[in-house]
Amino acid sequence: MSLITVEDVTVRLGGRMVLDDVSLTLEEGEIVTIVGPNGSGKSTLLRTLIGAVPPNEGKVTRKRGLKIGYVPQKLHIDPTLPLTVRRFLSLPKWVDDDAAHAALEEAGAGHLCNHQMTDLSGGQFQRALLARALLTKPDLLILDEATQGLDQPGSADFYGQIEKLRQDRGMAVLMVSHELHVVMATSDRVICLNGHVCCHGAPEHVASAPEYRALFGSGTHGALALYRHEHTHEHCDHDHNHPHSHEEHA
What we know:
CATH superfamily of the largest domain: P-loop containing nucleotide triphosphate hydrolases
Radius of gyration: 18 Å
CATH class of the largest domain: Alpha Beta
Order of helices and strands: EEEHEEHHHEHEHEEHHH
CATH topology of the largest domain: Rossmann fold
Largest sheet: 6 strands, mixed
Helix content: 25-40%
Structural class: alpha/beta
Strand content: 15-25%
């Protein structure tokens, strides 16, 4: 059974259509990246998947007992608040030392245990958030633009850690990112979203799809430069196990 199945989901917020007839599946052990322009509904889709936003139409089905770890885009901590990384991992529920240290090691942040959260660099802060998400031993790890604000080496480092976690734990990963040059290289599947699913499939197919190029341009973009192909596709739905996506443009 798929971890999550989304069938014909429509979400309206404040009277505005944010997601229109979206269908997709998330399978065990795969890394899936959602790309799309600002305002395309990416964060709303994540919140719908985890149950924070109910769909107006359609259905979201989660595998029974599914455990989800979530790394937010950002988290504000009052700079005057004395809070070590170890203490942060035990909010709001106490976590024993062995579990805390194991999660930090897996996140590549074992040396940060006694550091103050407010003293961490951007990359260190995101690894602390990752460690917290790993405490639940998730079947699915969701990252909402988790490397926003990091430089390119920092982003590549972070995504390398995610790939290692997938290999070690066998968990699935769903990422939202603007850093197409990085995610295209680490993803099994890419979903291009602009209110609806424009196209989806293997990274090289998505990068050569007209719908993708219409949103992100062609030729000079880093992601496209990685996946230059002689051919083009009328549509990049190349995986018949996944619901067919829609051609209409908002």
